[in-house]
Amino acid sequence: MTAPGGTGEHGDTRGRDAGQGPARAVPPSTVARLPGYLRALHALAAEGAVLTSSDELAARSGVTSAQLRKDLSFLGSYGRRGVGYDVAHLSERVEVVLGLTTQRRVVIVGIGNLGHALANYSGFADRGFAVVGLVDADPDVVGTTVAGLTVQPFAELAGLVSGTGATIGVIATPAAGAQVVCDALVDAGVVGILTFAPRALRVPAHVDVRAVDVASELQILAFHDRRRTGTWEV
Amino acid sequence: MTAPGGTGEHGDTRGRDAGQGPARAVPPSTVARLPGYLRALHALAAEGAVLTSSDELAARSGVTSAQLRKDLSFLGSYGRRGVGYDVAHLSERVEVVLGLTTQRRVVIVGIGNLGHALANYSGFADRGFAVVGLVDADPDVVGTTVAGLTVQPFAELAGLVSGTGATIGVIATPAAGAQVVCDALVDAGVVGILTFAPRALRVPAHVDVRAVDVASELQILAFHDRRRTGTWEV
């Protein structure tokens, strides 16, 4: 989970421009926070801000200033003392590191309530993603139009991925079908999978999986709630 | 983020039953993995399994055996060498630690596509949660029936939370309204918030927030995809 292409480990210590060191290998925990920083930077830009402080940016991102400064140091972005960070410059830097300078194409499999919500989510385009294909196994759903796209049958998945150049697949099916869908996405050439199905998925080493399980998130909240009530003993 | 009520730190080292040590303070990273273990245990139980090994349970949970054993040791559950873990016993133990022995009540605010998907998600009831209230600000949505519940106006939020005993609020509104909704949920007495709105939320110290931002998850996948293509230099 390091960035082997980073220049910092390989002898070239010259920054691209003044005040920017080279990017070092970025730890996974830092990568996971970068989207939040980018979101806050875009909000600042929309409000007309040209410069921001680490305190301001940290507060808007829900992290401490120290955490923010440490994370941005991995990107070679240190800010200038008494001046702060240039909002446009830092946004671009984070986008480059996240690989958002090219729009990524996404296929969604499973067009139930959740798949509908995802297909219609307007926030994807703003943040570097285009939903280019929808797939479902249900004959009643195939052929319907959702968010301007015609839902394709499962048999068309491979052709859809190769034809659109999609590199990311979203699994919004029930748990039972998720591994079959996952295998088909991987065979079709997808290299990143975001799954909402409540089960662990097996993938080859070159494929990354991010899992969102809503009930698990609630269970984690329940842990804190229970702890708070003091009924630890069983 | 420790469990101050845990017995391990406070002198009582007697386990509740043979082979079970007392629970120690459970680290947040372990808490975050417990729902996955519970999901795998329930799947094993559904298949009729009485015992399981750490290898089996780890594989189904998508973690290493070493990680699993370490996590379960925080719960005072060590398994028996050559025998493994008792599926029913361990499930119960995880449920107790997560606070799932009492059903938690959940209110959802924002009944768009995502709110519909969440309200209709059948997996909540199986996993310890009851959706007891739906709220929306749109007069066209208020009064409609979703998943057997009538959508209430925002003005009814406080009464709905206190009347139902809800302790968890789910925010499925656009980003712009999320902080106002969050404040209202906190004022109404909710102690856990799961938000899908793409912005950081401010809450008092006694309230826990879990945030799911789908576009952020895609951006994290994009990082790995970009890294893989080797175009690190900018």
From TrEMBL, chains A, B:
The cellular location(s) given in this protein's UniProt record come to:
Cytoplasm
Please verify whether the record's keywords include Repressor. yes
Residue stretches making up the CoA-binding domain: 100-200
In terms of SMART domains, this protein maps to: CoA_binding (SM00881)
Of the GO CC terms on this record, one is: cytoplasm
GO BP annotations listed: negative regulation of DNA-templated transcription; response to redox state
Q: Does the keyword Signal apply?
A: no
Disordered: where is this region?
1-28
Q: Short name of one Pfam family for this protein? A: Put_DNA-bind_N
An example of a GO molecular function for this protein is:
DNA-binding transcription factor activity
Q: Which UniProt keywords apply?
A: Cytoplasm, DNA-binding, NAD, Repressor, Transcription, Transcription regulation
Top-rank taxon: Bacteria
Residue ranges of DNA binding: 36-75
Q: Which family does it belong to?
A: Belongs to the transcriptional regulatory Rex family.
In terms of PANTHER family, this protein maps to: REDOX-SENSING TRANSCRIPTIONAL REPRESSOR REX, REDOX-SENSING TRANSCRIPTIONAL REPRESSOR REX 1
What does the UniProt record say this protein does?
Answer: Modulates transcription in response to changes in cellular NADH/NAD(+) redox state.
Report quaternary structure and partners. Answer: Homodimer.
The protein here is known as Redox-sensing transcriptional repressor Rex
